[in-house]
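User: Um, any thoughts?
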Amino acid sequence: MEIAVAGLGRMGRALAARLVEQGASVTVWNRSAGPADELRADGADVAGSVGALWGRAGVVMSFLADDRAVEAVCLGDGGLLASATPGGVLVEMSTISPGTSARVGAEAERCGVAYLRCPVSGNPGVLRSGKLLLIVSGPRDAYEAARPALELVANNSHYVGGSDEARVVKLAVNAVLAATTELLAETVTLCEAAGIERSAYVGVLAASALGSPFVAYKRDALVDRQYDATFTTEMLAKDLHLALREASERGIPLPVTELVAELTDGACDGGLGGYDFLALLPFLQHRAGVATDLPVRGG
C-alpha cells in the first residue's frame, strides 16, 4: 500500500516509521530536511515538495502542529490541496479547531479530495506500538475506503460523524485529561502534606473504582517524578483554549475547563510549558508553598 505523510514532528515521524514497519510504501515530506533524511535511512522515500506527495500515493496523512501549520500546508499556494489529485484521500491527524478543519474540508470538496478528520489519542510511543486511538469523522464511504491504511496505524478507530465531529470529540477528551491531571496534582499534594507517601496514594487510586488506564500509565512517572514530555503542558494549554473557543461559539459554559486552562497557562508562565503536562503538579506545589518536583519561575 502506498501512503504519504506530510509533517514530521514527533508524531509524524512515529507515524511514518510505523507505516514503514507495517510494510507500506511510504513517501514523506517535511518543511525542514533533517527528519525526512532520517526516515529515508529507514526505507521511506522523500518528496521534494508537499504537492509531489499525490504523485506517490492516493492516501496522504498529515500530522502538523496547529491551525496555522495546517492552513499553510493544506491551503497555501503549492500546498496539498492546490496540487491534489481528484479521488485522493486526505487523512488530517492534527489537533486543530473545528473551524480550521471545516475550511480544509470545503477546499478538499472543491478539489475532489475525500477528507477524513482523524485526530488521535496517544503519544509517539503508543503510536509506534500500534495502540493509538483514532477518532475519525468525514464521509462514511471515504472512511471505509481508507480503513486498510488506518488499520496499518492502529486497529482502534472510532467513527463519530460525517463532518468535523472528530475535532470536537478530541478537544473534549483532552479537557477531561486536563481536569483529571489537575485533580491528581491537587490530591498528591494534599496526601504528601499529610505525610502519606506518593506511591502509597497513587497505588490506592489505581486500585480503586477511579483507577483508569491513564492513572496506570502515569503511575511510574508520578512516583519517580519524571517529567520528560510525551505531551507538553503548552500543547495541553493550546487544546484547552481551542475547546473553550468552540464551547463559546456554541454558547456552552465550561467552568471547570476554564479554570484548568487558567492553571495550565500559569504553569506555562512558570517555565513548565516544555515539560510533560504532569507539570501541573509542581505548579500546584509551588502555589501551595511546598517543595516542588521542578523549579517554578515567579512568585
In short: The first strand starts at residue 2 and ends at 6. The CA atoms of residues 120 and 134 lie 5 Å apart. The chain has a mean pLDDT of 97.
